Amino acid sequence: MKSFKSWRSKSSCGNILWECGDGKVSGSKGLRIKTIPSLGILTVLMLFLIAMTMKEQYEQTRAEGRWQPFDSAKNSNLTASNHRKYLSKNLQEEWRITDQLNTDNKKGIESLPRGIVQETSDLELKPLWRNSRIKDTGKQHRNLMAMTIGIKQKANVNLIVQKFLSANFSIILFHYDGNVDGWNDLEWSRKTVHIGAQNQTKWWFAKRFLHPAVVSVYDYIFIWDEDLGVENFHPGRYLRIMKAEGLEISQPALDPKSSEIHHRITIRNKTRRVHRRLYNLRGSTNCSATSIGPPCTGWVEGMAPVFTRAAWQCAWHLIQNDLIHGWGMDMKLGYCAQGDHTKNVGVIDSEYIVHQGLQSLGGPSANKSSVAVSPSQRSVTKAASEVDPRSEIRRQSVAELTIFRRRWQRAVEEDKNWVDPFEDLRKKKSHLYKKSHRRPK
Ligand SMILES: *[C@@H]1O[C@H](CO)[C@@H](O)[C@H](O)[C@H]1NC(C)=O
Ligand SMILES: *[C@@H]1O[C@H](CO)[C@@H](O)[C@H](O)[C@H]1NC(C)=O
Ligand SMILES: *[C@@H]1O[C@H](CO)[C@@H](O)[C@H](O)[C@H]1NC(C)=O
Ligand SMILES: *[C@@H]1O[C@H](CO)[C@@H](O)[C@H](O)[C@H]1NC(C)=O
Ligand SMILES: *[C@@H]1O[C@H](CO)[C@@H](O)[C@H](O)[C@H]1NC(C)=O
Ligand SMILES: *[C@@H]1O[C@H](CO)[C@@H](O)[C@H](O)[C@H]1NC(C)=O
């Protein structure tokens, strides 16, 4: 995988200072329509309807053209041309345009001498000049912690960041409340990258700022929520286990004392170092040794996932640009396990966390017993008097889940080359099961 080679730039400038605006939309004071009021309203209404219809169609088209052959094409056996053969007619035109764009992009690179091309990047702060105050410590940051945070969780985030900094992680913080300055008093604040965008979710940030090419120097990528207690968690030990167990995607187990547990597979088993499946023969989820997928095996939840470089490259592509709550995506993460998801995805028990379920997001009505919005899908809509933001968020999340499932289904139908690795495993397992249970004649 050529594109993953860590090309560390030795250039001395290029301090990364990313800060987004505060997201405020200025009022449209300049616009005034003088006409008979009722007619005016009708016109505006019609225009609005037309605009919405056009937007819907646009989104639809965009969604259909979501397969992006950027760097992914290089790493897979799927070339743009053999993929296109199988696309339905109405997508052909879209692909023609996409192909053209890619050819144009390549043309741009081909005009450079090969040795100067650097496809990858990192998130390290660099000194403005060699002997400037910010010293290039020469530390080898091999792992990245990305956290979506708000100022209300400052105390806990401080604990988490300190722990990861002492393990030589690179830190990038996504501020969903746009409050970046509120962290300046913390000593480590100037050593980390801050990105502020109001009311945005963790998957929104991840899609935009953790492109695989941008984080390609890091071996492991943590994408965590802010309300996790790390008292019994050591990043270094955790990674040693993850490596030794050959896990591509993992999460630390949740202390059973956690106030929020959504899925039983995440609960810590005190007697183990790591577990990969749930055994549960009661209830609606019938999980046994022959189960091959979620919720029994092969997945982790969205609040504290850890990815290898390769798994993240895949997961990033799975995140839909427009579906910001990410519902349903965790169930498909197993497809990013770089092989058998029942082996390469796991929950690490010996390094575990407490899910505090502190809802600073969604405003004061946040109450886990009233609306069960998974915090990994949280957004930050502040209570606007009557509107309960959390139930609005939940409604939106469910709607996104439906869209995501439909897209997956359509993608599977359209890609005739695609073989479901889960299905392969199912066949193999049931075959083995039958074999071992066949009675000798
Ligand atoms: C690509 O797939 C074909 C069969 O579909 C296979 O014969 C070939 O070895 C594959 N190439 C690579 C590089 O994986
Ligand atoms: C962090 O990096 C420093 C400097 O390279 C090194 O001395 C230290 O041992 C590292 N700490 C850990 C926990 O890896
Ligand atoms: C914990 O792991 C042990 C050993 O594999 C197993 O026997 C036990 O049932 C597990 N406990 C739970 C609660 O899953
Ligand atoms: C659960 O699955 C096992 C085998 O996969 C089966 O024997 C058992 O009857 C199932 N239990 C329920 C409640 O469906
Ligand atoms: C949460 O809801 C429960 C019952 O619905 C109520 O008793 C409790 O006071 C609520 N807590 C907060 C912080 O609103
Ligand atoms: C976004 O968040 C800010 C504060 O963080 C809040 O004042 C504002 O009402 C929110 N806007 C929306 C549309 O949720």
Automatic annotation (TrEMBL):
**Pfam families registered for this protein in UniProt:** DUF707 (PF05212)
For region Disordered, the annotated ranges are 363-389
InterPro entries found in the cross-reference section: DUF707 (IPR007877)
Keyword hit for Ribosomal protein: no
Q: Where is the composition biased (Polar residues)?
A: 366-382
Q: Which domain of life is it from?
A: Eukaryota
Alphabetically sorted, this entry's keywords are: Membrane, Transmembrane, Transmembrane helix
Ranges annotated as spanning the membrane: 36-54
- Which PANTHER family does this entry report, sorted A to Z? OS06G0731900 PROTEIN (PTHR31210), OS07G0564800 PROTEIN (PTHR31210:SF47)
Q: What is this protein identified as?
A: Lysine ketoglutarate reductase trans-splicing-like protein
- Source organism per entry reads Picea sitchensis (Sitka spruce)
